[in-house]
Amino acid sequence: MEKPNLDYGAAIKFGWKKFKKNAGFLIGIFIVQILVVIIYSVLSEKFDIPLAQFVLFITYLIIIILMSIGFTKIYLKIYYEEDIRFNDLFIHSRYFTAYFGATVIYVILVTIGFFILIIPGFLLALIFYFYQYFIVDQDKGIIESLQESYKLTNGYLGQLFVFFLIILALNILGFLVFLVGVIVTSFVSSLAMIHIYKQLQYIKSQ
């Protein structure tokens, strides 16, 4: 039986449609993210005591991870057509340990891959990319989320690579449109990736 192909067009259309519907909210949480970065930068300039800088960095790191989890949760809730709220950015701390642990392993694997040769780095990045969705969407643990991403992407690395090239081109185009366009394309890309994740789940369930 012939393997089903990923529908790139449907994913991009989904991302654009959902961005338009939720543009105000999404741009709002983007501004919050920028403000967090600015506040950290300002405060880090004011503290010259190493311990204070360390505490500030750890606090900043925790907030950034919580926001990363929050963004993923918001994208998933948009896909499921659930209500999204501002506090979704910060309230999902129960995923923190798994998300942090899996991210550390993911970064280490991809970094080693790039040091060996560039291609293995790309392949590992694709193979384990969806770990974050499995944690937030299905409450998987550190190792299990990486294993599930491996199973999900098995047999579809070529198609995923093409889709990442499409996403890259889309964001480069957004960057060229007065820089502001990249804000739009980044959200469209993130929502499109959720659609690809769900497409793969559907295909693998058949």
Shape: globular
Total count of helical runs of at least 4 residues: 8
Helix content: over 70%
Order of helices and strands: HHHHHHHH
Q: Structural class, please?
A: mainly alpha
Q: Tally the beta strands.
A: 0
Supply Rg: 18 Å
Uncertain residue segments:
none
Mean pLDDT: 92
Characterize the largest beta sheet: strand count, sense, and whether it forms a barrel: none
The separation of the N and C termini measures 12 Å
Measured by DSSP, the beta-strand proportion falls in under 5%
Using brief descriptors, characterize the structure shown.
about 210 residues, mainly alpha, about 0% strand, globular
How would you summarize this macromolecular structure in one to three sentences?
With 206 residues, the chain is mainly alpha-helical.
